[in-house]
Design brief:
132 residues, mainly alpha, 4 helices, 0% strand
Amino acid sequence: MEDDWRSGIGDSEGLTASQIFLSFNGRITRGIYWISLFGLVVGAVALAIAGFIAIPMLTGSNDAVQWLPLAINLLVIWPTLAISTKRWHDRGKSGWWQLILFLPLLGPLWALLQCGFLKGERRDNRFGPSPY
C-alpha cells in the first residue's frame, strides 16, 4: 500500500457516520480524519447560512441570530472531539492529548502535525485494530 495520505482511508471506510462522529472508541486514518473535519466545517457553514436567513424570517427579528454561533459551536464540539480522539488513538496516544490545544501557538501546531500529517501505527495497538 502507498504511504501517501490518500491511501490512508484503508479499512476505516467501513465505519458508519455515528461511529466516526459520535464514538470515542477506535482509530481512524488521516484520510477519514480530513474528510470528516471537512464535512463538519461544510455542515457548520451551511447551518450558519440557513440560520442567518431563516431565523429573521421566522421570528421577524434579528435578536435570536446572536445565539446562532454558540449553538453551532455546541453542535460541533462532540463530533470534533470524537474524530480527534480516534486520530490520537491511531497515533498510539490517549485522546487526552487534545488538551495540548490549550498551549498557545505550539499546541495547535503540534496537534495538527500529529493528527493531520503523521502516519498512524500500522499494527494493532491498545486502542484497537489497525485501520490500514
